[in-house]
């Protein structure tokens, strides 16, 4: 698979192993994630939504059988929501808004079945669930926190802190410095996106203390 976001892909020689040419493909599944040669996540999101939507039938059948709403929510949390969040640290910041809304609609359908008389926000409150986009952000921040641990094997991939990259004393010196991003695709990838979010969150908290 040739990774190239350009419209005109360069004509490269095919690869071969032991004089056997390898097939060239435009997409490939790796550890449950569908990667495509343009590094977009449309196909992966579509597969995720389709897979999760098929399991909603379980909720419908159990609802008709008189299973209590709280038990239906437990089933949703065990069988459906994990599909919608699988490896979200890899793709969550890179998907456009319309794909994020399509993923959210899967949870909306479940809440409509379990709590037919409640608005989506009210149903989430009763079910003690968060919106999926909010949960993905929390999960990404949790991954970032784990990577920051000194014993993490991925610790070296983090951008340097502001204190490490600058000789002077700065506010939010413990935050990762914001890397220079020449493309929007790189800017929305995990490390630059999380560094920016973490930096904004710290500034917001400090501003609150200043106002108080």
Low-confidence stretches: 203-212
Look at the helices and sheets and give the structural class.
Answer: mainly alpha
* Percent in strands: 5-15%
Estimate the helix proportion, in percent.
40-55%
Give, in order, the helices and strands.
Answer: EEEEHHHHHHHHHH
The major β-sheet equals: 2 strands, antiparallel
Strand arrangement across the biggest beta sheet: 1-2
Radius of gyration: 22 Å
- Average pLDDT, to the nearest integer? 84
The quaternary state of the protein chains shown equals single chain
Question: How many E strands?
Answer: 4
**Count of separate structural domains:** 3
Query: How many DSSP helices?
Result: 10
For the record, give the distance between the C-alpha atoms at the N and C termini, rounded to a whole number. Answer: 55 Å
Which word captures the global form? globular
